[in-house]
Amino acid sequence: MPRHQDVVLGHTSSVGSSAQQGHHHIHLTRQIRIKHRFPPGEQPLRGPITTSLPGQRPVFERGSRPASNLWLEISTSGAPEEAAITEFGPAHAALADTYVGEDAVLTYARAQSARTGIRAIGPSGGAALRLLAAAVDAKAIAEVGTGTGVSGVYLLRGMRPDGVLTTVDLEPVRQQYAREAYHAAGFAPNRARFIPGRALDVLPRLADGQYDLVFCDGDPAESQSYLAESLRLLRPGGVVCFEGVFQEGRLAEPEHHDPQTRAVRELVRDVRESDRLLPALLPVSDGLLCAVKR
Length: 294
What we know:
Blueprint: E1 5-8, E2 12-14, E3 22-36, E4 46-47, E5 49-52, E6 65-66, E7 70-78, E8 82-87, H1 90-99, H2 104-116, H3 123-135, E9 140-144, H4 150-158, E10 164-169, H5 172-184, E11 192-196, H6 199-202, E12 211-216, H7 223-233, E13 234-243, H8 259-273, E14 277-282, E15 288-293
Parallel strand pairs: 9-10, 9-12, 10-11, 12-13
Antiparallel strand pairs: 1-2, 1-3, 3-7, 4-6, 5-8, 7-8, 13-15, 14-15
Helix pairs in contact: 2-5, 3-4
């Protein structure tokens, strides 16, 4: 029986050949990109799409919009059941970005980021960082990539009132923008420690096991080295986060083999396969890879 689709999320799987039965109920939801193979002359399918688990005939429903940025829900109990794929499009992403809202401080810091050409985490990703900082009751956070202070404001707002953010950036001028943003947000000067320099020169000087959260938004090519340093810096139960792992869609596109995308793919794989980490890949901003240190 031919393959009916390729599901691409850093690797490829297929739907098609043999029947299987399960004894557990599994409910899996993830944002993915789907690639389909079509017989010669057949037009690409357009969503929504409904397909089946192995052993059942796929059913495709043609709609009016391209079937991209999809949610895949799979439920198996006893015999295979249908797997429904429904759209997760720009409207949902826009809702996530506006759900919490950004005040004048964040709006200004984000404008500074755009003006200077410095990438900044999106509002939904920032809200996730704030939530994670609060969830671990963070007193000490290390940040790779200060930027203009967008992510730092979110992190500081999630931390304990006596918490300290240690933030590293190669460019002191960026840290000055962030310093202004933190001051405008009402944080005392002692709430942030600014260290200029290359992250891989600075991180080894930080104390082992003393950090509740490490946020990495630096050079993607150095991400695996950031991971190694983060594991050393974090206490058990601490969280490491990497921003921008979707690489503007390149992560899920096998044809992209540039060094930066390859490095991020290796990072995603290593985090998933590490027995020291409990990971999740969150579809916020440009992809937020998070993991708890066991």
